[in-house]
Write a structure and sequence with these properties.
Belongs to the aldolase class II family. MtnB subfamily. Helices cover 38% and strands 18% of the residues. It has 202 residues and is of the alpha+beta class. The longest helix has 25 residues. The site of zinc ion (ZN) has 6 residues, from loops.
Protein backbone atom coordinates (compact mmCIF):
# COMPACT_ATOMS: atom_id res chain seq x y z
CA UNK A 1 0.00 0.00 0.00
CA UNK A 2 1.37 3.48 -0.85
CA UNK A 3 1.47 6.33 1.69
CA UNK A 4 -1.43 7.90 -0.15
CA UNK A 5 -3.53 4.74 0.01
CA UNK A 6 -2.85 4.35 3.73
CA UNK A 7 -3.83 7.95 4.50
CA UNK A 8 -6.88 7.76 2.21
CA UNK A 9 -8.04 4.69 4.15
CA UNK A 10 -7.55 6.56 7.44
CA UNK A 11 -9.58 9.53 6.17
CA UNK A 12 -12.39 7.24 5.00
CA UNK A 13 -12.46 5.63 8.44
CA UNK A 14 -12.37 9.04 10.16
CA UNK A 15 -15.44 10.03 8.13
CA UNK A 16 -17.34 6.94 9.28
CA UNK A 17 -16.46 7.65 12.90
CA UNK A 18 -17.34 11.35 12.77
CA UNK A 19 -20.62 10.58 11.00
CA UNK A 20 -21.44 7.93 13.60
CA UNK A 21 -21.00 10.60 16.27
CA UNK A 22 -23.32 12.99 14.39
CA UNK A 23 -20.57 15.50 13.66
CA UNK A 24 -20.63 15.52 9.82
CA UNK A 25 -24.34 15.47 8.88
CA UNK A 26 -25.47 15.46 5.24
CA UNK A 27 -22.46 16.29 3.00
CA UNK A 28 -20.77 18.54 5.55
CA UNK A 29 -17.17 18.43 6.73
CA UNK A 30 -13.88 17.75 5.02
CA UNK A 31 -10.66 15.97 5.95
CA UNK A 32 -7.06 15.96 4.80
CA UNK A 33 -3.67 14.43 5.56
CA UNK A 34 -0.19 15.54 4.47
CA UNK A 35 2.19 13.09 2.87
CA UNK A 36 5.99 13.03 3.32
CA UNK A 37 6.50 14.72 -0.07
CA UNK A 38 4.32 17.71 0.94
CA UNK A 39 1.35 16.77 -1.23
CA UNK A 40 -2.00 16.44 0.53
CA UNK A 41 -4.71 13.79 0.46
CA UNK A 42 -8.10 15.51 0.81
CA UNK A 43 -11.78 14.70 0.47
CA UNK A 44 -13.47 15.50 -2.83
CA UNK A 45 -16.07 18.26 -2.64
CA UNK A 46 -19.71 17.43 -2.01
CA UNK A 47 -19.32 13.82 -0.87
CA UNK A 48 -21.20 12.35 2.06
CA UNK A 49 -18.36 12.04 4.61
CA UNK A 50 -19.93 9.11 6.42
CA UNK A 51 -20.01 7.06 3.23
CA UNK A 52 -16.65 7.83 1.68
CA UNK A 53 -14.70 5.30 -0.37
CA UNK A 54 -11.00 5.53 -1.20
CA UNK A 55 -12.04 6.95 -4.59
CA UNK A 56 -13.44 10.03 -2.83
CA UNK A 57 -9.97 11.05 -1.64
CA UNK A 58 -7.79 12.95 -4.09
CA UNK A 59 -4.34 14.42 -4.09
CA UNK A 60 -3.46 18.12 -4.29
CA UNK A 61 -0.17 19.99 -4.19
CA UNK A 62 0.75 22.44 -1.42
CA UNK A 63 -0.93 25.27 -3.36
CA UNK A 64 -4.19 23.37 -3.59
CA UNK A 65 -3.97 22.34 -7.25
CA UNK A 66 -5.64 19.04 -7.97
CA UNK A 67 -3.15 16.46 -9.19
CA UNK A 68 -5.78 14.30 -10.88
CA UNK A 69 -8.26 16.82 -12.25
CA UNK A 70 -10.95 16.22 -9.64
CA UNK A 71 -12.37 18.99 -7.44
CA UNK A 72 -11.09 19.01 -3.85
CA UNK A 73 -13.10 20.31 -0.89
CA UNK A 74 -14.48 23.83 -1.29
CA UNK A 75 -12.66 24.60 1.99
CA UNK A 76 -9.23 23.42 0.82
CA UNK A 77 -7.78 26.88 1.50
CA UNK A 78 -8.47 26.49 5.22
CA UNK A 79 -6.57 23.19 5.31
CA UNK A 80 -3.63 24.69 3.41
CA UNK A 81 -3.44 27.62 5.82
CA UNK A 82 -2.91 25.24 8.76
CA UNK A 83 -0.31 23.14 6.93
CA UNK A 84 1.62 26.31 5.96
CA UNK A 85 1.75 27.62 9.51
CA UNK A 86 2.43 24.37 11.36
CA UNK A 87 5.00 22.03 9.78
CA UNK A 88 4.34 19.32 12.40
CA UNK A 89 0.67 19.03 11.44
CA UNK A 90 -0.10 15.97 9.31
CA UNK A 91 -3.90 15.90 9.40
CA UNK A 92 -6.71 18.47 9.48
CA UNK A 93 -10.33 17.58 10.25
CA UNK A 94 -13.40 19.77 9.87
CA UNK A 95 -16.62 18.58 11.55
CA UNK A 96 -19.95 20.42 11.59
CA UNK A 97 -20.73 19.37 15.13
CA UNK A 98 -23.69 20.54 17.25
CA UNK A 99 -21.72 21.80 20.27
CA UNK A 100 -19.37 23.88 18.10
CA UNK A 101 -22.32 25.47 16.31
CA UNK A 102 -24.21 26.06 19.57
CA UNK A 103 -21.10 27.53 21.20
CA UNK A 104 -20.81 29.99 18.33
CA UNK A 105 -24.39 31.12 19.01
CA UNK A 106 -23.66 31.74 22.69
CA UNK A 107 -20.08 33.07 22.74
CA UNK A 108 -18.82 35.88 20.57
CA UNK A 109 -15.29 36.25 19.25
CA UNK A 110 -13.73 33.45 21.27
CA UNK A 111 -14.43 30.55 23.58
CA UNK A 112 -12.01 30.13 26.47
CA UNK A 113 -11.44 26.57 27.67
CA UNK A 114 -9.83 26.26 31.07
CA UNK A 115 -9.91 23.91 34.04
CA UNK A 116 -10.75 20.95 31.76
CA UNK A 117 -8.73 17.78 32.27
CA UNK A 118 -9.41 16.97 28.61
CA UNK A 119 -7.22 19.90 27.54
CA UNK A 120 -4.37 17.42 28.01
CA UNK A 121 -5.65 15.43 25.02
CA UNK A 122 -4.38 18.26 22.82
CA UNK A 123 -0.79 18.33 21.50
CA UNK A 124 1.56 20.28 23.75
CA UNK A 125 -0.86 20.85 26.65
CA UNK A 126 0.09 19.05 29.85
CA UNK A 127 -2.14 20.59 32.51
CA UNK A 128 -5.82 21.33 33.09
CA UNK A 129 -4.66 24.79 34.19
CA UNK A 130 -3.84 25.73 30.59
CA UNK A 131 -5.99 28.55 29.25
CA UNK A 132 -6.92 27.69 25.67
CA UNK A 133 -8.46 30.41 23.53
CA UNK A 134 -10.50 29.05 20.63
CA UNK A 135 -11.27 31.92 18.26
CA UNK A 136 -14.71 32.11 16.66
CA UNK A 137 -14.67 33.57 13.17
CA UNK A 138 -17.76 34.83 11.35
CA UNK A 139 -18.86 32.42 8.67
CA UNK A 140 -17.86 33.47 5.17
CA UNK A 141 -18.47 31.89 1.76
CA UNK A 142 -15.26 33.58 0.60
CA UNK A 143 -12.76 30.94 1.74
CA UNK A 144 -9.56 32.87 0.81
CA UNK A 145 -10.82 35.82 2.89
CA UNK A 146 -11.68 33.54 5.83
CA UNK A 147 -8.28 31.83 5.53
CA UNK A 148 -6.59 35.26 5.71
CA UNK A 149 -8.47 36.06 8.93
CA UNK A 150 -7.36 32.78 10.47
CA UNK A 151 -3.79 33.44 9.37
CA UNK A 152 -3.83 36.95 10.87
CA UNK A 153 -5.02 35.49 14.16
CA UNK A 154 -2.13 33.01 14.14
CA UNK A 155 0.31 35.80 13.28
CA UNK A 156 -0.91 37.80 16.29
CA UNK A 157 -1.09 34.97 18.83
CA UNK A 158 1.65 32.65 17.54
CA UNK A 159 -0.33 29.59 18.60
CA UNK A 160 -3.60 27.92 17.61
CA UNK A 161 -5.07 24.51 18.44
CA UNK A 162 -8.47 24.84 16.82
CA UNK A 163 -10.99 27.41 15.63
CA UNK A 164 -14.74 27.64 15.27
CA UNK A 165 -16.56 29.11 12.29
CA UNK A 166 -19.83 30.62 13.56
CA UNK A 167 -22.98 28.70 12.65
CA UNK A 168 -20.85 26.28 10.67
CA UNK A 169 -18.42 23.99 12.52
CA UNK A 170 -14.81 23.83 13.61
CA UNK A 171 -11.31 22.95 12.49
CA UNK A 172 -8.84 20.87 14.46
CA UNK A 173 -5.62 19.08 13.55
CA UNK A 174 -2.77 16.92 14.76
CA UNK A 175 0.42 15.07 13.92
CA UNK A 176 -1.57 12.16 12.47
CA UNK A 177 -5.16 11.38 11.52
CA UNK A 178 -5.54 9.59 14.87
CA UNK A 179 -4.21 12.62 16.79
CA UNK A 180 -6.53 14.95 14.88
CA UNK A 181 -9.49 12.67 15.71
CA UNK A 182 -8.52 12.78 19.37
CA UNK A 183 -8.38 16.58 19.22
CA UNK A 184 -11.84 16.72 17.60
CA UNK A 185 -13.31 14.42 20.24
CA UNK A 186 -11.76 16.32 23.15
CA UNK A 187 -12.75 19.73 21.78
CA UNK A 188 -16.33 18.72 21.02
CA UNK A 189 -16.63 17.37 24.58
CA UNK A 190 -15.34 20.65 26.05
CA UNK A 191 -17.56 22.76 23.74
CA UNK A 192 -20.54 20.68 24.86
CA UNK A 193 -19.66 21.20 28.54
CA UNK A 194 -19.39 24.96 28.04
CA UNK A 195 -22.72 25.13 26.22
CA UNK A 196 -24.46 23.13 28.96
CA UNK A 197 -22.84 25.21 31.69
CA UNK A 198 -24.07 28.36 29.98
CA UNK A 199 -27.60 26.90 30.01
CA UNK A 200 -27.39 26.02 33.69
CA UNK A 201 -26.16 29.49 34.62
CA UNK A 202 -28.68 31.49 32.64
C1 LIG B 1 -23.62 21.06 3.15
S1 LIG B 1 -22.11 21.50 3.88
C2 LIG B 1 -21.59 23.00 3.02
C3 LIG B 1 -20.13 23.04 2.67
C4 LIG B 1 -19.28 22.82 3.88
O1 LIG B 1 -19.30 23.62 4.80
C5 LIG B 1 -18.48 21.63 4.02
O2 LIG B 1 -17.84 21.44 5.05
C6 LIG B 1 -18.37 20.62 2.93
O3 LIG B 1 -17.77 21.14 1.78
P1 LIG B 1 -16.93 20.17 0.81
O4 LIG B 1 -16.73 20.99 -0.44
O5 LIG B 1 -15.65 19.86 1.50
O6 LIG B 1 -17.75 18.94 0.59
ZN1 LIG C 1 -17.80 23.22 6.39
Amino acid sequence: MSDFDTLAAELVEAGRELYRRGWVPATSGNFSARLDDGTIAITASGRHKGRLTAGDILRIDAEGRSLDGRRPSAETGLHLGIYRRFPQVRAVLHPHSPAAVLASRLFKGELVLEDHELLKALDGIDTHAHRLVVPIFANDQDIPRLARKVDQWIERHRRLHAYIIAGHGFYAWGGSVAAALTAVEALEFMFDCEVRLYGVRS
